[in-house]
Backbone:
């Protein structure tokens, strides 16, 4: 099986988010970058599990400039066979999806497996667009995946239950929580990552179709809320909607 | 449980900006490494700590090990932890490729160790001890010992220990009485008792391999007659593990570090305890000190790690705890303010920050010297060896002693709840209390510094070390903002040099007890100067970064560094004035008085 895993490079979850240029640009000063957790923990790890069991290769691909390379190396340290970097700044989902599809279209991948969304922009757009550009079927939010004999079988978890789906490969599938368990790179993997191929390919010059007018931060959450002891409905609402603990 | 226990930003500062570890890759030993690879290792260490170690830090304290029929039952996760750290290559990481290692630099290992111990110092001790004792077999053992033990130890299947102390002989190892009698078959029969053996027996592994000191009958008296042996709990015989007459009599109930049992072992009750000599007879103490010196640097790191965990826990609390209002709020109305806004709380936090980041830098300086010893030859290598030898007592002791005060200040920030078991501060305080005691007490380190290191090679080593510090002072003098601080350190070094000359004069004219009587204060003074030196080194780098222009969190990071640097020079360095005064005094209270005056 020949699997392509697109990965996004996103700010570390502990990063403080700030904007510049009249709130139109994300301030990257001092930001630590990581592999998008949905791409790494679920898509990449499941791709590795499938090829470790049945043989094959896992290629990771990312659209980004040279600063993305240390993060891409982590995917190689986890066990990916090789990596590709499409050399351009990822400005919007359309550009990313089109650049990824342009690279993948004649490479004979059986499966394209990526995270359900990025933790930075939460667009959930790249997988669907990429499938359209390639003419592949697209199945989103897979929480379980088996692939053999040219067919993938997967579970989609929805709010009302589980849907089991079968799809003929090649296909694009987005991975959600539950598909695999996070791995930590081991020493041998980290040392091997240095010499694994990381190919830089020029971007095909896709132009974006949107532009960001303004970013804004969510309203700051108060650390303490006092609820009238007589108002249990409000307490239940806060626990359900804000604390998400019930 | 506090959210954070280390600052990864500060670790990156220390590794890349202060020590520029990437330069190590220019040496052949480390040529297979890259800066990105170092970062991956550190990030992996943090992930291992976050997922395996930190979640059970409190559980391991709450549920002490229990004595079973033939082993000590420890936290059930320890088996998984040992395997994971073995299989992922952490236990062997510093070794050569042929031993399954990856030649990880000591600097990177030190940074990883800092993370592991800050996350869960009890759990980290198990695999740290195993790596150190396996390294001893790899360095001095014969091929048969290496073939028999190394793979299992590096895989985390077998525990390694350091078995030195006996009930009547801890600091005075020359007095040990455990014997090793040649059995005629290449092995020895071991008979005796060992006390305080960390991870000395437990069910998280399939076997325990003791690196044990014992005396071969007829050998030289005292410490010159000590040999080193491999003494397994179960000895491999034709592919099977059979009991080796090593009995765990009991284990101690400790104040802290409760997750890692310290065993009382009895060997040879049935005259059937087999041991195998490591290296040459009567060289045991010399061999063991290879591991011991590394262990002393590790204690400095462990102490700093616990200070770090306490700092971030108390910082989190200070940010979240509203209490009272500013004195300037005359009406005392409006909402209460978080306690971090009060100057005295800031002082306590700044004290902790200056200790954590100053001591981390000091310990990493030792690790850097270790790396330079590994990659250089001849005179250059000898230079780094002397620098490491001189710095080791300060590296072990200052972070350990200050960790007591630093974690205590962490409790103070929390107030009453800091004293309660619901918050982790009391655990950090209890866990770190052992650090000034084991691997050579503060008193032993002080005698090592003043009685041995200062006079080593005719004083050449200590002069070399002084020159290193002076070089930093001279560099800082070039920066107008740092010049006043450089002058302060320069003056303190001058005073310390005068103290050293006076004590050396006493050594030549009087009994050794006289010049060693206040060795602990001498060591304390040296520790303060060493951390001031490290802070000045950091400040030089920080000034360059600030001059280059910073904003947002990065600006706050570098400015925070400057505040901690200044705090150390304004609040801690002046303590050396009092120490110098005492050390220059001819009053000899502790020598003049008799035991009767204390009874």
Residues:
């Amino acid at each position: 099986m020949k699997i392509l895993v697109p990965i996004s490079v996103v700010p570390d979850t502990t990063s403080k988010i700030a904007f510049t240029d009249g709130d139109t640009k994300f301030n990257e000063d001092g930001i630590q970058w990581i592999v998008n957790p949905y791409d790494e923990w679920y898509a990449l790890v499941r791709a590795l599990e499938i090829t470790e069991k049945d043989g094959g290769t896992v290629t990771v691909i990312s659209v980004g400039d040279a600063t993305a390379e240390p993060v891409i190396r982590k995917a190689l340290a986890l066990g990916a066979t090789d990596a590709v970097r499409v050399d351009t700044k990822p400005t919007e989902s359309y550009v990313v999806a089109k650049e990824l599809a342009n690279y993948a279209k004649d490479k004979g991948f059986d499966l394209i497996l990526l995270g359900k969304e990025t933790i930075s922009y939460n667009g959930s757009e790249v997988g669907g667009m990429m499938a359209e550009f390639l003419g592949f079927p697209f199945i989103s939010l897979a929480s379980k995946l088996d692939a053999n004999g040219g067919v993938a079988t997967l579970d989609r978890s929805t709010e009302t239950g589980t849907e089991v789906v079968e799809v003929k490969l090649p296909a694009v599938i987005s991975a959600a929580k539950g598909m695999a368990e996070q791995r930590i790179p081991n020493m041998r993997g980290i040392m091997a990552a240095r010499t694994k191929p990381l190919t830089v390919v020029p971007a095909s010059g896709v132009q974006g179709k949107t532009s960001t007018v303004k970013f804004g931060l969510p309203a700051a959450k108060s650390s303490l809320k006092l609820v009238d002891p007589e108002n249990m409905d409000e307490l239940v609402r806060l626990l359900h909607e804000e604390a998400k603990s019930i | 449980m506090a959210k954070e226990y280390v600052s990864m930003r500060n670790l990156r500062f220390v590794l890349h900006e202060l020590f520029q570890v990437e330069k190590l890759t220019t040496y052949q030993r480390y040529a297979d490494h890259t800066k990105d690879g170092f970062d991956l290792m550190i990030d992996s260490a943090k992930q291992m700590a976050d997922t395996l170690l930190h979640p059970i830090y409190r559980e391991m304290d709450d549920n002490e090990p229990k004595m079973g029929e033939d082993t000590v039952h420890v936290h059930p996760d320890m088996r998984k932890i040992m395997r994971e750290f073995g299989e992922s290559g952490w236990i062997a990481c510093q070794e050569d490729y042929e031993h399954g290692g990856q030649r990880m630099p000591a600097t990177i290992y030190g940074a990883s160790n800092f993370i592991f111990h800050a996350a869960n110092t009890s759990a980290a001790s198990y695999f740290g001890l195993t790596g150190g004792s396996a390294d001893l077999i790899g360095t001095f053992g014969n091929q048969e010992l290496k073939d028999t033990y190394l793979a299992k130890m590096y895989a985390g299947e077998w525990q390694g220990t350091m078995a030195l102390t006996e009930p009547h002989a801890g600091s005075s190892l020359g007095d040990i009485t455990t014997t090793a009698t040649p059995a005629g078959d290449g092995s020895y029969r071991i008979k005796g008792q060992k006390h305080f053996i960390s991870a000395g027996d437990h069910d998280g592994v399939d076997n325990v391999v003791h690196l044990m000191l014992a005396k071969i009958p007829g050998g030289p008296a005292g410490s010159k007659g000590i040999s080193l042996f491999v003494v397994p709990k179960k000895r491999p015989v034709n592919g099977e593990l059979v009991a080796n007459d090593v009995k765990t009599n009991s284990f101690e109930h400790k104040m802290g570090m409760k997750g890692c049992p310290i065993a009382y072992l009895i060997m040879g009750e049935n005259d059937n305890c087999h041991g195998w000599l490591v290296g040459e007879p009567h060289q045991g103490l010399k061999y063991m000190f290879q591991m011991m010196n590394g262990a002393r640097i590790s204690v400095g790191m462990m102490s700093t790690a616990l200070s770090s965990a306490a700092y971030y826990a108390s910082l989190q609390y200070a940010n979240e705890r509203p209490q009272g209002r500013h004195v300037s709020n005359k009406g005392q109305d409006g909402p209460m303010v978080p306690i971090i806004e009060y100057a005295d709380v800031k002082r306590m936090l700044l004290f902790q920050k200056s200790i954590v980041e100053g001591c981390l830098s000091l310990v990493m300086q030792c690790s850097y010297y270790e790396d330079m010893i590994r990659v250089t030859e001849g005179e250059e290598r000898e230079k780094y060896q002397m620098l490491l030898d001189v710095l080791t007592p300060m590296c072990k002791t200052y972070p350990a002693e200050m960790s007591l005060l630093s974690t205590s200040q962490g409790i103070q920030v929390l107030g009453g709840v800091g004293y309660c078991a619901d918050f982790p501060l009391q655990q950090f305080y209890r866990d770190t209390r052992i650090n000034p005691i084991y691997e050579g007490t503060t008193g032993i380190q002080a005698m090592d510094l003043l009685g041995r290191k200062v006079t080593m090679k005719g004083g050449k080593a200590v002069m070399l070390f002084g020159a290193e510090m002076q070089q930093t002072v001279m560099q800082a003098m070039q920066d107008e903002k740092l010049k006043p601080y450089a002058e302060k350190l320069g003056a303190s070094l001058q005073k310390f040099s005068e103290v050293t000359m006076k004590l050396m004069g006493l050594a030549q004219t009087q009994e050794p007890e006289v010049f060693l009587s206040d060795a602990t204060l001498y060591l304390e003074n040296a520790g303060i100067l060493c951390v001031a030196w490290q802070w000045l080194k950091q400040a030089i780098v920080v000034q360059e970064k600030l001059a280059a222009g910073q904003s947002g969190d990065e600006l706050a990071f570098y400015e925070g560094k400057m505040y901690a640097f200044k705090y150390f020079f304004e609040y801690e360095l002046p303590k050396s004035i009092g120490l110098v005064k005492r050390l220059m005094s001819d009053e000899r209270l502790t020598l003049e008085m008799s035991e009767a005056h204390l009874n």
